[in-house]
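[RESIDUES AND BACKBONE]
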Amino acid sequence: MMLTFLYKRKKRKFLGELRARRHAEDDLLTAAEKSAFDAVIDGFAASDPADFKESSARAEAELKKIRPDYSWLRNFLDLIIVVGAVAFGIRGLFFQPFKIPTGSMQPTLYGIHYMENTPLGKNLPGFLNYMLFSARRARLEVRQEGEVRFHSYKNSLFNDGVSFSVGGEPYFLPGDPRKVAEYSGLEEGMTLSKGEVKADGFLSMGDHLFVERFSIYLTPLKRGEVMIFTTDGLTVGGEPLSASSGFYYVKRLVALPGDTVRIRDNQLYVKPAEGGEFSPIQKLAPRTARLYSGKGGYQGHLSTMGDYRLYGVDEDYVVPPGHYFMLGDNSAFSLDSRFFGAVPRRNLVGRSWFIFWPFSRRWGRTDTLEPLDFPTGTAVRGTFPVMYKQ
């Protein structure tokens, strides 16, 4: 009695699955396949529950002849679509990955840069250097005297670099042509001697970080925060900034709408919009104190640079309503609000949050490390002590 009851339950469940499949595939089946499918369902419905094993197996075999069951594939694709939608939603609304392309925020954030005089990874396989440190070996020792002839530039995910020859011997160095020329000193037509070493280090592909996009709509922006913004509508020398420098920028927010800013003797001063006198930025934003430590590559905010003159008498700058003043930590090599003015609120993307690659001393929450304990200017930028824990 109990066994009969169990078979009846199994039959009802299987019959429901058959009917659900028939309904789901209604738009895929031809008229003949629909009739055959319905006949299989009717035949199974009329079968004796005691013969459930045989009748269900027979129904499955007959359906495979009519049309193979691809429901597993459809379910898998549905899952991929849902996961993709969630991932893109998270990326668009909460955390978005970015790569730092330049050195304008060093040593807080590093862009693509050459590292020399470093023992890092010289005995590691190339793929491990890349996976762990986003670094690619860059060494050129001339094998045959002759002239430099550039051939091609490859721009791909894992093979970005320049092909050239010296005295007919082929070579390859990582990076775009401008970066290769910068760290190797190579020029078209120059003559090199056999045994001459023009590069012996690594090219780091820059810090990769997550940008937190949501909180800028919930909490007030603060002086001293590292922000990502778009260059849409910003110009330098009458030309669009995005045309020459890319669409996204990363800088430090140093002044709010209505603030007045000035730079004197490499010190940034801000007079808040709510009133008061000019104060050093590190007093208003304690996290910027490391910028004036004179250690680890930090050098303050340099005077006498930019189209917006902030360093002469009566040359203060008032931040317009709905705008924010942005400066790079590496202000000697930073194209920032000194050149293109304050950034509109609509351009802000989010706050710099977490460096996820490479696995350097900066891995983790951004803008939290104290400067390394050596005077700025006494070490080559990008060398072993600056980049990695000892």
Observations:
- DSSP finds ten helices and 21 strands in the chain.
- Confidence is low (pLDDT under 50) at residues 379-390.
- Residues 137 and 354 are 26 Å apart (CA to CA).
- The first strand starts at residue 95 and ends at 99.
